[in-house]
Amino acid sequence: MSLDDITMWQPGYSRREIFLGLGLGAMLSPLARAQGFPSRPIRIVVPFPAGGGTDSIARAIADGLTKELGQPVIVENKPGAGTVVGNDFVAKSASDGHTLLLNTSAVAIVPSLYAKLPYPSDTGLAPVMLAGRAPNVAVVRADSPIASAADLLARARAQPGRLSYGSAGNGTSTHLSAELLKVMAKVYITHVPYRGATPMVTDLLGGQIDLGFGTLPSVAPFLASGKLRPLAVTGSKRSALLPQVPTFAEAGVAGYEADGWYGLFVAGGTPMALRRQLHAALRKACESEAFRKRAAHEGLVLSMEDPDESMKVFRAEEAKWRQVVKQQGIQAD
Predict the structure, then answer these.
(1) pLDDT (0 to 100) of residue 53
(2) Is 131 strand, coil or helix?
(3) Is there a domain that residue 241 lies in?
(4) Any residues with CB less than 8 A from the CB of 88 and at least 6 apart, and which?
(5) What angle do CA 140, 218, 52 make, to 5 degrees?
(6) Which helix (H) or strand (E) holds 316?
(7) Is residue 253 part of a domain?
(8) Which residue ranges of the chain lie beneath pLDDT 70?
(9) pTM value?
(10) Residue 180: Cβ-neighbour burial (10 angstroms; 0-12, 13-18, 19+)
(11) What are phi and psi of 150, to 5 degrees?
(12) Domain identity same for 82 and 158
């Protein structure tokens, strides 16, 4: 069909207006539905075991994303090697947007912990969205003589190495947030790593360690029962779940900030148009009432940064944790 034919069927429009309209439509159509995406079910890979906080967040996102994209969204758990197994799987998947990774700030920590990763840390994964942030929390037994975060720091300075803290394991956000505190507050507290939050809390309650650093969901039941007492949160702001609990910055460690976060990634090389399309769908999924309730339960403050801003945060976090890992001599298990 010629332009003259189109003009005949579109009275009132000049040849120039029709030509410009056709050109604009040709440019917009790849953005609106890049390469017919999605053409099949989508999977969200979670590099942690089923049943945890990240898994719960992923399944809530999957429900909303199914509605937004009109294709089933399946969650697959691929734990191992401090999230490296799941990261590697997504990095080596097709760069067509059908395989996503939902990881925590661990994805920005592992490049510093391993001399060599099975995927290129600089180009293997491409951020789609930083969903939101949630702080960790420092806790003690209800009968602990440590009265506050300021008291903790005073005791640690008076008796270097005498106090001990537990984390969910070497290289986890709970471990690194404590080590950053030690660097910035210039204190030494002995680290006792565990394989997960459950054994750490068990030993804390049993008196084997003096305090613990945990995610909010992992310690919330014990805070509610009164068995544990919070000292401070590791974020830049107080948590809505613990509004009476100060930040470590408020307790005297100026500039301290160690928010945990949840980010969604695809394989490196995925076209930006496709990443933006995914971001738009993910944002709508995260704005649903069902997801907001789940996020609030996890203490997650939604931010939903776009791919460009997410990349800036990702690179800044990598640099931040690389410095802590090097200064503290931290190694993976």
Answers:
(1) 82
(2) strand
(3) no
(4) 117, 118, 119, 124
(5) 160
(6) helix 307-328
(7) no
(8) 1-35
(9) 0.83
(10) buried
(11) -65, -40
(12) no
